[in-house]
Amino acid sequence: MRTIIGLAAAVLAAAYLSSAPMAAGTSGHGSLGLTEQKKESPGGKVYAAGCAGCHETGVSRAPHPKMLQFMAPESIYRALTVGVMKPQAAHLSDMEKRQVAEFLTNRKLGAKVTASSAPTCTGDAARFDFARPPSVPNWGLGYGNKRLVPSERAGIGRANVASLKLKWAFAFPDALRARSQPGLAGGAVFVGSQNGTVFALDRETGCVRWMFHASAEVRTGIVVSQWKAGDSAAQPRLYFGDLIGNVYAVSAVTGQQIWRAHPDDHPSATITGTPTLHGGRLYVPVSSLEVVPATDPAYACCTFRGSVTALDAATGKQVWQTHSIDETPVVRGKNAVGTDRIGPSGAPIWNSPAIDVRRGQLYVGTGENYSSPATDTSDSIIAMDLKTGKKKWVYQATSGDAWNSACVAEPKHNCPEENGPDFDFGAAMVLARDADGNELVLGPQKSGVVHAVDPDTGKLIWKTKLGRGGLHGGVHFGIAADSGRVFVPISDAPDTITYDEEPNPGLFALDLRTGANVWQMPLKDECNGREFCAVGNAAAITATPELVFAGALDGYFRVHDAATGKILWKLDTTQPVKTVSGVMAHGGSMDGAAAAIPDGGLLFVSSGYNFAGHMPGNVLLVFEAPEP
Fold first, then answer.
1. Less CB within 10 Å around the terminal CB: N or C of the chain?
2. Residue 509: beta bridge partners?
């Protein structure tokens, strides 16, 4: 019995449950999956006359319309009026631009989730503090992606965690989810949002220093470049990516764009994993949402190949690009309605690269193939040379995995003959040491298995199965590692699939040397009938030597004792809070790579995940602890 479906099905479920105009079985109504009445609306007619010619024909860098459906209408309207599409939309009236934005997203402009009138910083709160460079590099809080914060830097431990109090809360406007992990530096909190706005917030009060408008949703974390403390001549930068495949460098001081790059020309390319900054280069993982248009029998599936692109951090110029699949996709036959079948494809990379400074290589994990034939680099851990991008070794965890969303839609004409099981490596790879000092590369998989391989050869050292796996894992977005231990969140959230195994959601600690279970803390059902609530630890986690911080799909944020797994503090983030803008807002399910960050006695928690049918929310919660 098929026991897994993956990211593509999550995207389909998201579209359906968030009232986007696309769902399985609607592909017969055209590439947007819309009713004839909707296509004949004013916005539909404008789109058909002036936009479809590029967005539905695979024109380079023109996002497929099914990707545009996941954008906020405000983002599309902004692109048409002052953004990258302004020249192409110059002939349209303002009303027509609004109609197109609402047509593509099936949401009304101005139907805000919350007011956006957060106070603007003044005085000291508005000043960039050059005495406070970032305390950690990159999304993984260190080059090895261990997501470990030293106790003295965290300022939160067993002694004071139960005394955490809300300091301030920020509501993201025009948003139903919060997926961007904040970057902390200069006395500011830098964070992206669903409507494409990147905010620089004052760390102490939450007021807004500046805003930058990207072209689409910013789901990645925000990476801040280093500088020497006190160097007022420094010019620190922020790096991040957006939903439609752009990568940005922005001044951390002013919010002004320095450069923008587009590492992959495929119309369905997206940046989900946070780019990694090291040695003057930005290493960008490239994924895609091509699994979504594959539901349409008229779509020639599929042509995307995952990749890592190294960019010059100063200029944004490409240094090298290495695809997860070496072979260029070619036509391999026809589907049942006569559309080309193209392959091999897929093996997307949607996790943040881990850097191995000593060996001069990076590690990423890949997802499934989108079309036949299945390759030997899907569902794999790959080591690449930092200088050249050359593949050093490949460890494949699951072979023969080709799958796309047509496999769970009707008709199934674009479903590959392998038909799954879609066991991506969605979570980031981790470079860590066991108690004997031996280094391991840890690969947490959506199958619920954690793999430990030799960083020199890619040879398997051990693997441990903890979860059943499912729509959101297994392991979905990220683990954490301490000296001799690895902490693993398991989701196993229920979905529409019937499984042979029982779910095993919770948090686990494994011995790094052997993979043996040290402790486990099962997750109990505390949904109490709330709509779209699920049981499971799907979000990335963070650890200190004393604590493990874990957000869950049920909306609860839990802090565990790292020695035993015992829950020391728990908060229901779905409860309304007053935000700095004066309005009430709330969190929701927690998933994605926006893990909590403890820093200097403050705890930063993002909550809300209206994606794949989970609970919406749009808040950044900042808690303060007394001195430990």
1. N
2. 487, 519
Q: State both tokens at 279.
A: 């040695």
Local structure of 210: helix, strand or coil: strand
Task: Enter the DSSP assignment of 346.
Answer: B
Put residue 60 in one of left, alpha, beta given phi > 0 → left and psi -120 to 50 → alpha.
beta
Average pLDDT rounded to a whole number, residues 1-17:
34
Whole-number Å distance between alpha carbons of 364 and 418: 24
Token reading at 413: 């004409």
Local structure of 75: helix, strand or coil: helix
B/e letters for 111-146, b = 16+ CB within 10 Å, e = fewer, are ebbbebebeebeeebeebbbebbbbbbbbbbbbbbb
Query: Are residues 595 and 551 in contact, defined by beta-carbon separation less than 8 angstroms?
Result: yes
Q: How far apart are CA 158 and CA 162, in angstroms?
A: 8
Give the three-state DSSP class for 530: coil
CA distance readout (Å), 306 to 268, 301, 347: 11, 15, 5
Query: Domain limits of the chain?
Result: 7-16+110-624, 33-68+73-105
Spatial separation of the C-alpha atoms in residues 139 and 221, rounded to whole Å: 6
What gap in Å lies between CA 76 and CA 71, rounded to an integer? 7
- 151 by DSSP, 3-state: which? helix
Find out whether 572 and 590 touch, Cβ atoms under 8 Å: no
Q: Which of 146, 374, 409 is nearest to 292 (CA)?
A: 409
Architecture of the 7-16+110-624 domain = 8 Propeller (2.140)
- How confident is residue 83, by pLDDT bands cut at 50, 70 and 90? low
Strands 237-241 and 480-482: unpaired
Distances (CA, A) of 256 to 173, 253, 274: 21, 8, 20
317/117 Cα distance (integer angstroms) = 37
**Tens-place pLDDT, residues 361-417:** 999 999 999 999 999 999 999 999 999 999 999 999 999 999 999 998 889 999 999
By CB neighbour count within 10 A (0-12 exposed, 13-18 middle, 19+ buried), where does 504 fall? buried
With a CB cutoff of 8 Å and minimum separation 6, the contacts of 624 are: 164, 165, 166, 167, 601, 602, 603
Reduced to 3 states (helix: H, G, I; strand: E, B; else coil), residue 293 is helix
Q: Residue 17 pLDDT > 50, yes or no?
A: no
Q: Name the percent of the chain in helix, strand, coil, to the closest 5.
A: 10, 30, 60
Contact 274, 143 (CB under 8 A): no
pLDDT digits (tens, 9 = 90+) for 463-511: 999 999 976 789 999 999 998 999 999 999 887 677 889 999 999 999 9
**What DSSP element (H or E) covers 310?**
strand 307-312
Sort 519 into a burial class: Cβ within 10 Å, 0-12 / 13-18 / 19+: middle
